[in-house]
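Design a sequence for this backbone.
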C-alpha cells in the first residue's frame, strides 16, 4: 500500500536535489546510479532512462527500487524511498526528459539523438534523515 507523504517530505522531494536510484540485477547484485527525478502531483516519482541502458532491463525484470534523495545543501539531510515502478512509457518527443532537465538545468535536454523511456515509482515507504 502506498505511503502518505508529509508536507515536509513533499517539499523536500519537490526540490531539484541530487538522487541515487538502486535496482537489482537478475543475479541479485544491487546496482546504483545517479539520476534525476521529479515528484508528480499524484505522489509518484518520475524517472527517465536512455532506452539502451542495462538499468532499464533490470527494472523491467524486477520493478522494485530504492531512491535516495540528498539535500543540495549537504548529504546529512536526505530522504530514502522504497517502491516499485508501476508505469512504463516511451518518452515520445522527449517531453518527460525535457521536464526533468528543466527542473534541474532550466533548459531542454541537450541529447536529442537517443530514445528514452519514462517510468513512475509508486512509493511504498519513506525514511527521512535530518529532513
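Sequence:
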Amino acid at each position: 500500500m502506498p505511503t502518505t507523504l508529509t508536507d515536509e517530505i513533499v517539499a523536500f522531494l519537490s526540490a531539484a536535489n541530487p538522487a541515487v536510484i538502486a535496482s537489482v540485477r537478475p543475479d541479485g547484485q544491487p546496482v546504483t546510479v545517479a539520476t534525476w527525478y521529479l515528484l508528480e502531483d499524484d505522489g509518484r516519482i518520475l524517472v527517465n532512462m536512455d532506452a539502451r541502458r542495462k538499468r532499464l532491463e533490470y527494472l523491467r525484470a524486477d520493478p522494485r527500487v530504492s531512491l535516495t534523495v540528498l539535500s543540495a545543501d549537504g548529504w546529512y539531510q536526505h530522504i530514502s524511498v522504497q517502491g516499485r515502478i508501476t508505469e512504463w512509457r516511451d518518452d515520445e518527443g522527449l517531453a518527460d526528459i525535457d521536464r526533468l532537465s528543466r527542473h534541474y538545468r532550466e533548459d531542454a535536454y541537450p541529447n536529442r539523438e537517443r530514445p528514452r523511456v519514462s517510468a513512475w515509482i509508486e512509493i511504498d515507504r519513506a525514511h527521512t534523515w535530518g529532513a
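The chain is about 20% helix and 45% strand.
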